[in-house]
Specification:
single chain, about 100 residues, alpha+beta, 2 helices, about 35% strand, extended
Length: about 100
């Protein structure tokens, strides 16, 4: 995928994670830090997604409020990860065979 914004252009790796209920594909970025750099520093961004043959789909976004949104998303993720780690049971520590 190609990202183009007022701060520059760069290729971004993505993979198709799943199909949504409406038939659209859900893409996941492979390097979130590179994406964050564009999203939190730019004013607008466009993404060119390759389709079949020689076609592309371009989607554009206004980035007002993106810095705050990314910050809140990261805070939520950290809190949930901390909670998950608290509730996670430690794995087996012995060498005895087990059925899991």
């Amino acid at each position: 995928m190609l990202a183009n914004s007022d701060i520059g252009a760069m290729p971004l790796g993505v993979y198709c994670d799943d199909k949504l209920h409406d038939g659209a594909s859900r893409y996941v970025f492979t390097d979130f830090d590179r994406l964050t750099n564009i999203v939190t520093r730019g004013m607008r961004v466009g993404f060119a997604l390759p389709l079949q043959s020689d076609h592309f789909r371009v989607v554009r976004f206004d980035l007002r409020g993106s810095r705050r949104a990314v910050s809140e998303m990261r805070s939520t993720f950290k809190a949930k990860e901390k909670e998950r780690q608290k509730s996670a049971q430690p794995g087996p520590t012995g060498t005895r065979d087990q059925v899991l």
